Amino acid sequence: MKSGFIALIGRPNAGKSTLMNNLLQQKIAIISPKAQTTRNQIRGILTTDDAQMIFIDTPGIHKPHHALGQQMNKEAISAIGSVDLIYYLIDATQEFGKGDQFVLDILAKSKLPVFLLLNKIDLLSRDKVMDLLLSYNKLFNFNEVFPISAKDGFNIDELIETTKNYLHDGIMYYPKDQVCDYPEQFIICELIREKILYLTDEEIPHSIAVVIERMGRKKGKLLINAMILVERESQKGIIIGKQGKMIKQIGIDARKDIEGLLGESIYLELFIRVEKNWRNRTSKLQQLGYIPIDIED
Ligand SMILES: Nc1nc2c(ncn2[C@@H]2O[C@H](COP(=O)(O)OP(=O)(O)OP(=O)(O)O)[C@@H](O)[C@H]2O)c(=O)[nH]1
Ligand SMILES: [Mg+2]
Description:
By secondary structure, the chain is of the alpha/beta class. The protein folds into two domains: 2-169, P-loop containing nucleotide triphosphate hydrolases (Rossmann fold, 3-Layer(aba) Sandwich), CATH 3.40.50.300; 184-287, GMP Synthetase, Chain A, domain 3, CATH 3.30.300. The chain contains ten helices and ten strands. Magnesium ion is lined by residues 16-17, 37-38. Residues 10, 12-18, 31-33, 35-38, 59-60, 119-120, 122-123, 149-151 line the site of guanosine-5'-triphosphate.
């Protein structure tokens, strides 16, 4: 039995969470076309006959504008410290820029084996992919290079097989049927946040957080009360929408996914609260689980 930890690292929107879900053949991480979707490290566990691979999805590394952004970068970079292998994901449809170089410099310092995963090749011609592979190989001494499509699953089986060569003879860290390591409440909040990411634009996706206020039973059905935090009154208006249309749609879409996750029908009640500047308030970020709380001995 081989086992090990693999960090998925890259810029926002590269497709890390899409790859995570494809590796596990299960949706455990939310995905959206908006940058900075993932805010925490998310562990996904894949156990095969001969190996256990623990993948760590991370927030995209970016130039931060607030305390939450700084913490997201920290989450991504700290994941590197505790793994055996790094998957460096690139959105192959985007030009290589300063931000990519910044990430590569961090990887170079880590001295860990790095796979380059050139993602979204379903959108490119073969010739373009060949050109990119040649130019990326000049930039860094990658241990392996894979053109992939995280969305279509192209080259993912080969990626998993090659990954096993970089693992150690090890122990099983998790029971073989466990797929992720976070509580159900976290994914419920994330699914609600995902719907807001899809349905709103501009500053809204970055300005919201979701918390569960209460879970209980009502007429035999599971009742979930969730609070959507926004930073300003005007954002509250946008989330409610004209005649409450937006909040209604968020509720309908989220309920469907949550029911799929839990395998039972639910009542979902959404509330909105303005928490001024929450992205810059350490205590709020701790309360929301974005910053770990240090427990003094
Ligand atoms: N065409 C295509 N689109 C993809 C592929 N992989 C991801 N995407 C799309 O790219 C967007 C971003 O995907 P995510 O998986 O959320 O990206 P991420 O790297 O996790 O982003 P952050 O969490 O913001 O760092 C979504 O719209 C995906 O559907 C792919 O292989 N092909
Ligand atoms: Mg993500």
